Amino acid sequence: MIIIFRRFTFWLALAGLTGLVFFVHANTSIAPMPEPPLTPPRKPFEKGIGASGIIESLRENTSIGVPFAALVTEIKVKVWQKVAKGDLLMRLDDREMRIKLIGQRAELSVREAEQHRAKRQYDRLAKIGAGAAVAREDLETKEDDLLVAKANVEKAKAAIAETERNLERFLIRSPIDATILQINLREGEHATPGGSTIPIVLGSIDNLQIRADVDEQIAPRVKVGARAVAYRKGETDKAIPLTFVRIEPYIIPKKSLTGAGSERVDTRVLPVIFSFANHEELKTYVGQQVDIFIEE
Fold this sequence. Notes:
- The protein is α+β, with helices and mostly antiparallel strands.
- Helix content is 32%, strand content 30%.
- The protein has three helices and 13 strands.
- The strands form two sheets. The chain has a six-stranded antiparallel barrel with strand order 1-8-12-10-9-13.
- The protein is elongated and about 155 Å long.
- The relative contact order is 0.20.
């Protein structure tokens, strides 16, 4: 009986030891790394550096502001609409200025009537001539009155011209040939200069440019005229060939963040600009983030 009990305890201890070994192994073994959901882009060059970038319209996006705070009475454009330089984008409330213009035109009519009267009085005395019938002093007075009346007419015309020029400031026009990218105001809303909301954003999108952010630590490795390609997020098999435009010689804090958990937000970067031709098959949009490889 004792022998049977000892055998039982031996096998029980052995089973416990075996179970402990399996338990430790299961909790200390490293699981294999899962395959990435998307294959990362491969470097197309033998030697190159990587950077993240953001797509902009050619010659950068143009943010349209307003010269003064005013109510928006009319939006003349819509998103995706192509506009030419000088086309009307929106109209601000100019009712007070137009009322002022009506008063100034009425004032001009009064001044012109005064000038006409002063001229008739002067012409009548000048026709008689200075002599016994008309004192020279009276003739000179009428001449002075005529000059003052003419000056008042010119002053009234200048006031009207100034108001008409100011009325043009209520018409917000496009400074370039471009496409409307964004409209952030609606009719009836209040527009403020320098506000956090940009009323209208436009830019040329037939050709686009990419602003690549190269880490300052590897910035000296970027060469003028370097070849480069870009990959849109999630499309690592479709490279976009780029044309070098310029290096902006000013290191800035990184603003365009990719959202990756390991991304540093205190990085300073060198902006490098590349361009490419946009077309329907690319379906590329302003503001889109891309991965860039630059040849060394």
